Each structure stands twice: as structure tokens, then as C-alpha cells.
């Protein structure tokens, strides 16, 4: 209902003008469509809401009443997941691996992208093409060779194996985004910085990098999500529980706590929370990033 | 082109050593951890191995022959493959009917559409593992709210063990996968709709075209490129899908292999079979999957291009 009002109020914005022109005929249809849109929004959100609400209920409440209404909210599920089931350890590992991987791939991609975008040298186009080919590589094909490479480096069951893989895997995308941003910057900035006595390194660090900060934000957000959510690589590379990430920890947890439904919901929330926070902080960047290159 | 010439005077040169210092860290990491394993991967499938990476001999295409002739691959590979295809087909149909409908209706809404876009995209950002486990709990026959709701609506007969029955497990997998993914097509279709100049629709109205005809002859042709791109991404995602089926059915694709897909089969052969030549056979499987995805994506692009030419 509020939505219908909203639409009419905002109609001068333009998009709803045709609907307004023939309001009489379209009203019934508009109500039906608005209802459908809200229903589907509920289908999207209610499962996630149920997950959050059930994590504050007890096992007994969930078993006796299927509706996720927390009449008597409790934090005990979080205590049992976080402390007893070592989610604190898993979360720490996930944070360590995700943050270092994103930091390393961004840190090495920035100078490479700058050189590819701003300098002329032999083999530049071929090199850029090689980096871009990494965007097309199907991960499945690389898993076994990567596993044996890490085995050879004695890095199986070490977070370092995942950090290396994710860092390398992030380079094509990061270089791709950063090159296009560096190319858009006007050359006068560099010239002025050189006249002020800068060298290649100081100009890059003090002048150019700060200018591509929005692109760095895009790269960080869009590498963070898939690394945080990845499950197959940790499943293959990690062996001991102390090194588990949240994903692998969650599978163990679902085996061991399968009769403690309430704690399972808390485990799911802990695994998802950092992403929800990121989504709330960076909604605009995420939506814009996902639709980059299409219209608008 | 124009930009290159405009900036030509300002494009810098740097001494080779400086160029190397800027590029080398990224290149070394990329080459050692990604490029080198990738290059060796295709070769793995042409050799016989013993207990991990001990090379026995070059055996041409024997590993591929094994996949098509020997138990359990000869039964499991086609089954898993058909499941991948079913996931792709189901997703394709739903995102280009329901997804397109949602995108078109949202586009008419005006600025409030942002709110819906965010709500529809939320599941897309949640880990597929969490999504899988969450739906396992929600669909539980003992305490799940889904069956409780069906009971409340008087549909007790529908309140089955959704993920426990082979007949329903795959359809549920497809629907949950669509539930998670569809926000992405809706978002992209919305962006493409926003890029269509309103004058085009106005002109068609003046010419007397009704709503459906305008959609069919003005909007839809202009959406073809984005529908094509999304379809190819859907194809790749459906063929490589691992985490969601694993969350539902584990490494064996339970119940009774109903949620088994190629990536899960690959994982089983590579890391759980204990077979001596696991490396050779699973590399052959990965190579086949890679070639199929590559071929499918290239074919898809040709179809889309032909379609675009026909419509424009």
C-alpha cells in the first residue's frame, strides 16, 4: 500500500508516466503486480530472516513451534557455536585468509596495472592479454595441479596455500578493473608531479594510487565475496580442524550438531554476518558493480 | 583509439628495470600459482599415474576411454551430466520468464525499484553452502517451517521429505539454485531496460503498438544481448556447480545420487576414490568438462549473434 502511494508521489520522476496516463484501466493490474513483487521479495528475505530469528530460539522452541518468532530470545546458540564448536577459530582463519588474499592481490595488481596502463614497453599488449586469459580459466581444471603444487611446496593444510591461490586468482580481475581506471586519468597529473621532483615510485604511490581509490574499493569488495564464500578450495587443501575456514567448519558442525537445530542456525548466521555487513555498507558499489557495462 | 592519440603525448616511458619492478610481483604470482598449473592440467589427463603423482606412462586417451566404459563412471557420468543440464535448463527457463517479468515490472516502478533490487539480490551474495544448509533446515520434515506452512494451508499431502526423496531432491536443488541466482539476471535486465531510450517506446505507441507488441518488437530485441550474456554465465555456473549440491547431498549426491553433478563426481574421483590412477581419470573428467563448457559458451555466442542480426 505504501508502495502505491510512493509510486504516485514520485511519478513526476518519469518512469511511471505511462501508468498514470491510463490510471483507471491500470489500477487493478498495478495492485496485482505490486502484490506479486512484494510476495517475491518475501520469498527472498523470509528464509534469511528465519535463519536469523531461529538463531535466537532454543532447540525446544524450534522443535515445538515451526514459526520463527523469538518469544524469549537467547544467545546460548551463539555461545555454543562460537566457543564450544570453535567458530571463533574458523572465523579468525576465514578473516586472515580473505583479508591477506585481497590485500596481496590488490597490492601486486596496482603497480602492474599502472605500468600496463600508462607506460609503453615491448610486449605490453601480449602481457595484458596473458593476464586477461586468467579471467577465462575454469577453476575445476586447476584444482588438481594446484593441489599437487601445494603438496610439493609442503603447504597442504596451511592457510598459506589458500592465500597464494586466492591472491593469484584475483590478479586477472584486479588488473582488468584497475587498468581501465588508470587509463582514464589525465597525463598532466603525472607530468606535474614529475616537475615537482617526483620519481616513478613516488608519483605512483602519492599521486596515482589515491586517484584510483574508487576502483580499489570495487576490487576489494568483489574479491572479498567469492573468497569468503569459497568452499571447494579449503575442503581440498585443509586437513586439521585448527586451520578450517568457516565453510569447512560449517560442514563439520552440521555433522556433529545435527540434533541441535538452534545452534545450526547460529552457525549459519556467523558464517554470513560479515557479508551482510559488507552488503549494507557497500550496497551501492555492489549493485553498480554487478551491472557495470550495461546501460546507465 | 581517439583516446590513445589524445593521451599519446602524456603516455610515459620508464626504464626497463622500473617496468620490471612494477610488473614482476603480479606476474610471478600469476604465472607460478595459476598459469603453470593450468598448463600442466591438460597434460595430466594423457598419462597414467600411480598413487598421486608418480608417473607411469603416457597412455594417450585411455583415461577418457575409462570414463566411458568402466564402472562406476559409465553409470555416474551421464547421470551427473544430465543433472547439470537439468539445472541449466530449469534456471534458463525461470530467469527468462519469471526473472524477465520481475525486471520489466520493477522497471515501471520508478525509484522504489532500488529497494526491490536489493531484496532480490540478497540471496545471491550469501554463500551457496549457507543457502544449501539453510534450505535443508527449512525443508526438514520434522521441524521445517515450509512443511508446517503446507500443513496450515491444508496441503498435508505435499508436506514430503523434500530432500530425502530422489524424485523431489533434484527439483528442489534447481529451485533453490534459482532462488539464489535470479536476483542477478533481474538486476542486469533492469540495467539494460534502463538503457533503452524512452522515445523508442513512445514512437511505437504513436504507431499504435499495444503493450505486448511494444515489448515483443521493441524491448525484447534490445534485451537480446544481455539475455545472451546472462545465459552463457548461467551455463558456466550450472556446469561448474559444486557447493550447493554438496550441501544438499554431500560427496555422494544423496539421496541415491539424485543431487550428483559433474563437479561432485570429480571431487569424489580426485580426493575420495583412493584409486591408484585417480589423477589421470579425474583430469580427463575435468578436461572433458572444460571442453564442454568452452564449446557450449562459444556456440552460445554464435547463436546470440545470429539472433541479434535477425532481430535488428
Automatic annotation (TrEMBL), chain A:
Any one of the GO BP annotations: transmembrane transport
Coarse class of the protein's main subcellular location: membrane
InterPro entries: MetI-like, MetI-like_sf
CDD domains reported in the protein's UniProt record: TM_PBP2 (cd06261)
Subcellular location: Cell membrane
Keywords from the named record: Cell membrane, Membrane, Transmembrane, Transmembrane helix, Transport
Transmembrane annotation, as ranges: 30-53, 95-117, 129-150, 162-182, 203-225, 261-282
Highest rank taxon of the organism: Bacteria
UniProt name for this protein: Sugar ABC transporter permease
Organism the protein comes from: Acrocarpospora macrocephala
From TrEMBL, chain B:
Superkingdom field: Bacteria
GO biological process: transmembrane transport
Entry's family note: Belongs to the binding-protein-dependent transport system permease family.
GO cellular component: plasma membrane
Location of the ABC transmembrane type-1 domain: 81-300
PANTHER family for this protein: BLL4140 PROTEIN, DIACETYLCHITOBIOSE UPTAKE SYSTEM PERMEASE PROTEIN DASB
Record-linked InterPro entries: MetI-like (IPR000515), MetI-like_sf (IPR035906), UgpAE/MalFG_permease (IPR050809)
Record field: transmembrane: 16-39, 81-103, 115-135, 172-196, 217-239, 278-300
Pfam families to which the protein is assigned, alphabetical: BPD_transp_1 (PF00528)
Keyword Secreted in record: no
Name this polypeptide is given: Sugar ABC transporter permease
